[in-house]
Amino acid sequence: MSQPEFPTELKLRPRPVTRVELKVPTETYEHLARIAGARDMSVDALIKLYLGQGLRQELAQRFADQVLELTANVLARHGQSPDQVEAILREIRSGTGS
User: Fold this and answer.
1) DSSP states along 10-77
2) 78: which DSSP letter?
3) By the 8 A CB rule, do 88 and 80 touch?
4) pTM
5) How many Cα atoms occupy the beta-carbon half-sphere of 89 within 13 Å?
6) Contact 46, 35 (CB under 8 A)
7) Mean pLDDT for each 10-residue chunk of the chain (98 residues)?
8) Structure confidence at residue 38 (pLDDT)
């Protein structure tokens, strides 16, 4: 059985960028540099990684909040009392960790 061929290089699509100047405490930069070195990456790449992770988490939370708000509106339109709506939303949040 032959092995599938995998690309040997990663091809990223170019995206427009904006330069940002960021001032951080020296101690914070030193921690970033130490962590980046341990991960064999640049401080720039580590900051982009952290920024991307935080942004994805924030966007996911905002989406979840919008879904819950829409759910509350639909429940209210279908005759659920405010107390019932709140109880249902509490149950959903406890099951999803929101």
Assistant:
1) --PPP-----------HHHHHHHHHHHHHTTS-HHHHHHHHHHHHHHHHHHHHHHHHHHHHHHHHHHH
2) T
3) yes
4) 0.65
5) 20
6) yes
7) 68 87 96 97 96 94 92 90 90 78
8) 97
Output the pLDDT for position 14.
87
Query: From CA 8, how far away is CA 12, in angstroms rounded?
Result: 13
From the list 21, 9, 16, 48, the residue with the least C-alpha distance to 32 is 48
Q: Token pair of 23, please?
A: 């001032």
* Residues with Cβ within 8 Å of residue 82, at least 6 apart in sequence: 76
Say how many C-beta atoms besides its own lie within 10 A of residue 65's C-beta. Answer: 11
